[in-house]
Amino acid sequence: MPQPIPGPSALPVLGNAYDLDPVNSMESFNRLADTYGEIFKLNLGGVDKLYISSQALINEICDEKRFTKLVSANLEQIRNGTGDGLFTAFEGEHNWDIAHRVLMPAFGPLAIRNMFDEMLDIATQMVVKWARFGPKEKIDVPADFTSLTLDSIALCAMGTRFNSFYHEAPHPFVDAMIGLLVESGARAFRPRLATYLMGSTQKKYDADIATLRSIAGDLTAERRAHPDDKKDLLNSMLKGKDPKTGEQMTDESIINNMITFLIAGHETTSAMLSFLFYHLIKNPAAYQKAQKEVDEVVGRGPLTVEHMSKLPYLEACMRETLRLNPSAPVFTVHLRPDNPEDPSFLGGGKYQVHKGQHIVALLPKLHRDPLVYGTDAEDFKPERMLEEPFSKLPPNSWKPFGNGLRGCIGRPFAWQEVILITALLLQNFNFRFDDPSYLLKIKQTITVKPKDFFMHASLRDHIDPMHLEQMLHSNTPPDTKVARKDRAKSVSNGSPKKPMKILYGSNSGTCEALAQSLARTASGYGYDADVETLDSTVDMVPKDQPVILVCSSYEGQPPDNAAHFVQWLENLEGKKLAGVKYAVFGVGNHDWVSTFHRIPKLLNKTFEERGATRIADIGLGDVGAGDVFNDFDKWQDEKLWDGLGGKGASEAESGIGITVDTNSRRTRLRQDVKEAIVVSNELLTAAGEPEKRHIVLTLPTGMSYKAGDYLAVLPMNNPKNIRRVLKWANLPWDAMLTIQSGTNTTLPTGHPISAMDVLGAYVELSQPATRKNVVRIAASCTDEAVKARILELAGDDFDKEITLKRRSPLDLLEEYPSAALPLGEFLAMLPPMRIRQYSISSSPLSDPAIATITWAVLDTPSKAAGSKRFLGVASNYLSGVEAGDRIHVAVKPSRGLFHPPADIENTPVIMICAGTGLAPFRGFVQERARQIEAGRKLAPAYLFIGCAHPDKDMLFKDELTRWEKQGVVKLYYSFSRCKEKSKGCRHVQDRVWEEREELTRVFKSGAKLYVCGASGVGEGVAATIKKMYDEDCEGLGKPKTAEEIEEWFQGIKSDRYASDVFA
Length: 1063
Description:
Elements: H1 25-36, E1 39-44, E2 47-52, H2 55-61, E3 67-69, H3 73-82, H4 94-103, H5 109-114, H6 116-133, E4 139-140, H7 141-158, H8 172-189, H9 192-197, H10 199-225, H11 233-239, H12 251-282, H13 284-297, H14 312-324, E5 330-335, E6 344-346, E7 351-353, E8 358-362, H15 363-366, H16 370-373, H17 387-391, H18 411-428, E9 429-433, E10 442-444, E11 448-450, E12 454-459, H19 465-473, E13 491-492, E14 495-496, E15 498-505, H20 510-524, E16 527-533, E17 546-552, H21 563-571, E18 581-588, H22 598-609, E19 613-614, E20 619-622, H23 628-644, E21 658-661, E22 674-683, E23 692-698, E24 710-714, H24 719-729, E25 736-739, E26 752-754, H25 755-762, H26 771-779, H27 784-793, H28 798-803, H29 809-815, H30 823-829, E27 836-839, E28 850-856, E29 859-861, E30 869-871, H31 873-879, E31 886-892, E32 909-914, H32 919-933, E33 941-947, H33 957-965, E34 970-975, H34 988-994, H35 996-1004, E35 1008-1014, H36 1015-1035, H37 1042-1052, E36 1057-1062
Parallel strand pairs: 2-8, 15-16, 15-17, 17-18, 18-19, 18-20, 32-33, 32-35, 33-34, 35-36
Antiparallel strand pairs: 1-2, 3-5, 4-12, 5-8, 6-7, 9-12, 10-11, 13-14, 21-25, 22-23, 22-31, 23-28, 24-27, 24-31, 25-26, 29-30
Helix pairs in contact: 3-8, 6-7, 6-18, 6-19, 7-12, 8-10, 10-12, 12-13, 12-14, 12-18, 13-18, 13-21, 24-25, 26-27, 34-36
Domain FAD-binding FR-type: 671-901
EC number: 1.14.14.1, 1.6.2.4
Enzyme class: oxidoreductase
């Protein structure tokens, strides 16, 4: 008996149109597949369509004896421009048969091999352009790859040059093509009457089609007028005869296929290249392996056609890219008209399909089927696509080029082109994201491409722009290297300053602030410091100046803008860094015991092993202890400057030059976040309890997330604290500041900006003062008695009086009004405003446009001053926003395993939390509720929650209780102030121990375990889990030592135990 096929309810006439994002329908299809499973049904344009995503079902529809390609609604509209071309022809059209047989030889191995030189010609144009623009130029990756692949197909297939790299604007073909594709996609889902009424849109659509056909016609006419013997695609169409019928292609068919190849021959390939470079930059280990393979196979000489078959790892990267991001993400079939089955069945009789019914294969979901690709199917792992494992995949597990007879005829052309271009680029450049935290966003037409993807290209160390063309074309590599020009030398007191390179790795901004602070201080020691990210210096660590590295660790991993540098460093051999003089300061958090300072220590150790000379012992700061800025100052004073043998100038030189203007007004906002709109802001706890809140946000267009991700918030300082600064500085509320250009600072420079903006949005006003801050404030005092009292605070009692009381520079300046510190020096003391990360407490399956966060508001008596209160910057900022307000946010992906399991139907879930650690699990459970509502059968889920009292702070009580009744999750509470209502369990780990028999059984069945809460929760749960394992082994007569238990625990952390702890 066939099962009903699930899907969202359809509206009369409109069907499921509102279930799809009109700008990015693929994201909607993928979300619906996550909700409903391997098959679902939609009514679009009055037609019932089936969407399938599992390998088992897609393998069935690839049987060409039962199913054949169906020209989808999108393609049917594109036929307005391409007619019966190979891509858009209906089944059985005579012109398709002729064209397919005529053109197959033009894409044979020898023909593709003969196109190599022309492909290389076009590729070198882009390489030279990037080299001349330099490493600071922001490259629009999809745009440049589009120009590249369009020029390549035009030259190789049709003998014409579009010369896209010699013009500012894209070739007219590109604009017309985009117009055709975008409007065709819109028309596919738009009622015909609406299209009829859109006169101006129709006029542009017709004009775009006319442009495409004119260009194709002109190319054909030019070749007819000036024939040649070139064995290219155009001559094949003009001169070739069908080996079966002897017929030639008609002029109409030639133009249709010219447009088809100009579109399909460059659009999907440029998308593939864009996605490939995204994944390589995002995954430094794969990047380094691919680049190393190119270096070993190609070396520094010219790339040749013989190299194309000798780069297996690069080809694996290409396959893996197309697995995760097929540029043509669907294909559509239906039952063959001559198939006697009607109805037919899929899934062993589970699902019934009828003749004429559209069946759409969702390739992004096929390529992530956990039964084929495992629980790490979301990860970019080229090793799974090396020749041997690739050949062992189940049939029809990887389908980026379509299926069977109607598959992509140009696959060999695209494959050679991508190998050539990628090898050439990796041979000559190092790449990094323009925005190190960039997360993949999709732009959709008939294909998909990365959206807003920009990168920088730096020539590798052995290459100079003047010799690049010689390297690209000569038979032997140049044996000389032209030194790059030094930047203009700064001058101080008539003498040139010495250069210094300061490299930082930072996600939250702390290490960048330290680096900028060091650069200002360095000026007083006679150095002109250049501050860059670590990734910007891959393969280019200078040997003629001191190199200072300031870097953090994130769960043992490098920051986003240091990942490539770390990977490159780990792959270095011998004494490649001999001659480099360096020092390292590292930042970490003691809550991550096993990985505390891992990356800074790795940098310090590896630099020395590779021959570099250490200037000073490594310095280490702990953000968890809240004193990292003082640690950094102490390291500089006691280690770094002594190691450099320098004596500094006065502290006054390290300030920021400022001009005050009270007349003009200008606002500048940070660019690394986007505006979200507040829908609601709700208090969750009872009166008198520590405040916990829940905020609902409408995300900016194009911003997406997964359950388990974070939302980074860029807060504003509390208005009370801003007014305190203005009062101290004797400034009016509308004062404008102009910070001098050339200053080492993250503040906006060179133009007026409101003092309210600077103080509210750009600096941390509550950061505890450092010893150096205290000394400088004291030096600004003319009253010797007051100066002495302030200096005492920098002595033995510093930790007690400053750090533990969190006394900020502002606190001290208010307390000692005789201190005459200039405003510029005050601002120089303040680190830049940091983003704060909060676990997202919702699921995109509920509503992809909505995200929620749940947090505790920090509002405690100030230890710095009597009646004042210490207000957490972000938590209080968020507590004050109201519906309709706009806040600045960015999605940050959760590292590692902190997402619901890939195989949700077979993997049980155990979630353990306390307080607002419930936030991500609310998202997990909401996602499960949506999936169960859609008819999916899920493995069981267990949620352990620690809170104070059932009547005071039981967050989301009604919602969770409802979900438990629906079978979504099993709830287990512990109440620290009412343990009699939680089986005597005061803490969440106590309740875990109470339920250990059930949990041990579930964990043995393959469950994944998640923990979220303060560091004490993480430690307590870890200890309990180890204790449970110890007891279980004892019961089985296989007792374990403490070392064996710890080894087991570390083992499950790699794939089954995910922890997210916070201070």
